[in-house]
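User: What would this chain look like folded?
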Amino acid sequence: MYFRVLGPVEVVAEPIALGGRERLVLSMLLINADRVTPSDRLIDTVWSRPPQSARQQLHNLIARLRRKLDATGALIVTRPLGYQLALTDHGLDLHAFRLSVLRGREHLQDERYDDARTELDTALSLWRGDALADLSGDWAAATRESLHRERVAAGEALAQAQLATHDHAGVLETVQVLLTADPLHEGLHDLRLRALARSGRRTEALGAYQELRRRLVAEFGVEPGQDLQETHSSLLRDVDPPSASPRHVPRQLPRPISLAGRDEILVQLTDVLRTPEPRPGTVLLVGAGGIGKTSLAVVLADRVQDGYPDGTLYAELDGTSHEPRDPDEIIDRFLRALGTTAPPAHVRRAERLALYRSAIANRRVLVVLDDALDERQVRDLLPPSPRSAAIVTSRHRLAGLDDVLRRNVPTLSTEVAVDLLQAGRDVTDPAPGLAQSAVQLCGHLPLALMVVAARLASGVVDLSEVVDHLSEERIRLDELAIGDVDVRASIALSYDGHLSGPAQRLLRRVAAVSVTTWPAWFAGVVLEDDVLGWRALDELVDVHLVEPCGRDAAGQLRFTLHPLVAAFAAERAAREEDASAVASCRRAAAMAWLGLASQADDGFGHGLRPVVGPDGATIPAGLPPRRVSVAAEQPAAWFDAEIDSIRDLVHALSRTGELDLAAALVLRSDGYLVVRGETQVRAGLLRRAVDCSDLVLRWGVLRSLFHTAAEAGRFSELAELAESQLAVAHKLDAGAMEQNALVQLGCALREIGRFEEATARFEEAASGAMARDDTMMVALAHGHLGTLLARTGHPVRGAELIAENLRAERVRGPSRRLSIWLTTYADCLALTGDLAAAEQALDEAEQVAKSLEDRNVLLDVAQTRAVIALRADDIDRAEHLLNDSSASGGPSTLDSEPTDTELRLRADILLARGRAVEAAPLVEQALLRHRREGVRLELAHDLTRLAAVHAALGEQDRARQQRSELVVLLRDLGIGVDGLQLPSIVAHLLEISSE
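Assistant: Here's the prediction, encoded as structure tokens.
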């Protein structure tokens, strides 16, 4: 397929009907072929006032283009921030034109004039009139003008080749066509005068010069440029004009400074700007204030300016100031630098611009424009000739500029930043990590690091004092100012200079809400208007006060504030925002996250029993933002993406006393944290919300705190938590809550070896549930009673009760609870000798846990398989299963202490291997833990193994001492040694200890 834009837009293959918007979008993708065209730029170009549905409509436009051009989707590719037209094997006349011009210029430089003419003739023959001739609008007009300049430059090169081959008639024909569209182009006029003189028409040449001079003086008040004047002088002396005349070469760069940490980007961009014609193009350096854009631009320009023999022009555009420079003022400065008289002030802008373009059209110059405000300020200052290049810096993306290579200037790496802090000082970091802390507090921002380095160099403060001061958020920005270098002032230039009111308000309130990262919908919640939120967010991203973080696990675009911008915005929020407005905004944000968390929680499949109080009172559902469906569609991925933001919100809500809302958020995230095994995070969030005033929510928080304490082995806390839960249930007069609390109290009593009291609590809960006809609660109470029986020597009866609870859990469908009870049931079945049924139950538990990606349950399943193998004296399989479970448990298990089961298994395996010395510290570790927590049944297991260890080591006195303590403990528990169901090796060694 072949595309044509150098005239009316056409697809050369077969007739393809394109609508107006389709033609415009296709043209934009073609002009920017093989590069990403941002969706925002497409939307702003297609619609002068984009509707709310603009993104969806653009998606539909792209889909229609794909159907018409290439249904495979390989031609127009979706990228994270836009779309890319990948030419691959397809053709484009613009690319062919530029390639032929490049070859023609190379031939011209090598004085191969005939070859140059062939290539340049081929290039110009591709034009079928004005580029994009069938498109209207600002983008089409600006692009058409840019392409026209390339056409003129190619024509000028052709005329030079024609002149060199003495084709004077050809020169006149070529130049005349170009002058019709660009009547003041001095390079073309110079070629025309030379061709006329060399073809014997000297008088006509002199007349043409006088005609041009009169027009320049009349319209601009200026004389022709130096080249034309010298050509005219040669004509008057009746001599052949010189091939070239010396020109004034401006070099306006400020002195470059030493740069650190920018080698990679400098190498890349140096290669770009040294690329041969036709288009080094424009390099746009974009970034936040203080990131080092200006220094980078100056160093880059200094490296490459030797490749631009006609000069380097430099201008500070003051785009972040209250009075940005007028482009006309810069044009006049550049004209004077190039040796051309600037026109009087009254001359119209179009005429001034034409004079500037004529002055540099035939030159190879480098233009450096620092601190640009917008496209309008920059566009007309860019050199028209493809032989020239420009470097532009801006805090804005300048999305309206086409044919630009954008590079975001990053912050410095930690290593480079630390070196920068140490530069010029003889002392080294007095404490490891102190410099890294300073770098982190400065957000790796070069301007902030420069201030800190200057303060350290002064000798007034040392690094530890700097870190202490920077750690105080309320004074951090005060510390980052020295002389006229001030981080706060740098950020304020973006904030106060050109931000709209909604954008300023969004920045302040985002900082006040205190979430580290957030998805795009958050802006609409903050400003209570989705469209306004999108526009304000786009403004903030454009000036780098908000930074995109890419897409999260759920596919949402996420954003963040640089820590110093966050500190600045928090200051402005305290100064400019009403406290009640901030509180309202924080509540709205929490309600939005709560609404989505509720959707994700309902679809997650964790199996936790819902929190339901009297009259159906439960956790508030929140208020999800409109048109956001990702939480319901991808609950696990949504929680993965949002859990840090939820944690930030809970912390912020707890600091301001909004504990009920914090509790609701915590409880709606609880099932996710359980499945992901984030016990410490879960416990921390629950503790922040435990004092909430809503009793239903407090009961739910206490219930979950009970589970976190049990999972962490803090058994001494369980009874108090269950009693507190029971007290709340009594206040609510809620039977279901009371019986659930009784079950948990029974579990607490079971763990500390008070079996009769535990049995009574389980039976009391079951009796109350029967009275309410709550079969699920009855089954739960019986299941926990069955676990007690199985662990105290009655596995057959225990298996029956656990099976009853399993039947009830199956009614609720696959869940984490089901997988846990299946694992418990398997262990009980193995104790009864039904190993086949036990393996079947474990297989089912593993399948459910895998579907939930529940690492902790998968770990329990694997370790239960190892326990069963060990009881069957299959030591090798037990060890293999245990090692595999530890290796595949994931980060949360690798970073935590070994479970009781793992410690006991490893000790038993070592004993079976005859390595009692290695087993001893594992048993002692478990014993200390269980003595501390008062877990008497587990302590009995530890004492049996410690006695076995001493017996294996021949330390009979110590073995008998442990056995004596064990006998007393078992008598107190009311069970015998057989009730512990010990592995054969432990039972054998225990017998030896009694001899």
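The two ends are 94 Å apart (CA to CA). If you want, I can go into more detail on any region.
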